[in-house]
Amino acid sequence: MVEVQDKSMAEEMEEKLRNLRVDDEEDDEGPEEGEIVEESEETRSSMGNPAKSLVTKHPLEHSWTFWFDNPSARSKDVPWGNSIRSIYTFSTVEDFWSIYNNIHHPSKLAVGADFHCFKNKIEPKWEDPVCANGGKWTMNFPRVKSDTSWLYTLLAMIGEQFDYGDEICGAVVNVRGKQDKICIWTKNAANEAAQVSIGKQWKDFLDYNDPMGFIFHEDAKKFDKNVKNKYTV
Ligand code: MGP
């Protein structure tokens, strides 16, 4: 299980986020899905000027959207997904922290809530064309013990810490009666090497030591509660 070690990992990730553009500028091969292409002159010129960089926003590689599914807004009479709402899209380090610092973390959410952070324009649904052939890794936590892991998962994703980051659609935290779950959704479930790499790296980043399983959305759609893991790390 994950222990909250100290604040150094979050600080380290934030530092990496701040440096992201400097590292990436050298090997830019053109925009990818969700990639932010605009970069102001102001951003470029502030790189060597610490005073100015305090007031300049630092762009992320991708823009991301938070989505919330409020359990009290759900109804049995409407299809699954009707109550999911997009909350906020961010594309800079600073905007991430301003939204993150002003929203409830998993321990404060109601049982049944789902909170998602997905690359912009990818909906957190099996039906989204980018997710359709994908799957998900799932970590389990005791109730109200997932806040730090949720933050570290977000920082690892938006800070592009995964070797197969392009494979990632986003992450969701599911608040349930007995436990919290955090899942990372990916695009091509059949690509075993990519999924296993993401799973192993994610466990390392969070210092998560329990076995963790990957299921294909195709299998989840069969609504079989005993759906089998395709991969385990
Ligand atoms: P869940 O919330 O992902 O699983 O899906 P959990 O947490 O194991 O189950 P819970 O009962 O504790 O909430 C629960 C159910 O929601 C699924 O069995 C589907 O009926 C529906 N569902 C979930 N997702 C992610 C989707 C989706 O992307 N599309 C559709 N159509 N239904 C979904």
Automatic annotation (TrEMBL):
Highest taxon of the lineage: Eukaryota
SUPFAM superfamilies for this protein: eIF4e-like (SSF55418)
Organism: Cinchona calisaya
Family: Belongs to the eukaryotic initiation factor 4E family.
Keywords: Cytoplasm, Disulfide bond, Initiation factor, Nucleus, Protein biosynthesis, RNA-binding, Translation regulation
GO molecular function, one term: translation initiation factor activity
Localization (cell): Cytoplasm; Nucleus
Gene3D superfamilies referenced in this protein's UniProt entry, alphabetically: RNA Cap, Translation Initiation Factor Eif4e (3.30.760.10)
Biological processes, Gene Ontology terms: regulation of translation; response to virus
Comp. bias intervals (Basic and acidic residues): 1-22
Protein's name in the database: eIF-4F 25 kDa subunit
Gene Ontology, cellular component aspect: cytoplasm; nucleus
Taxonomic lineage: Eukaryota, Viridiplantae, Streptophyta, Embryophyta, Tracheophyta
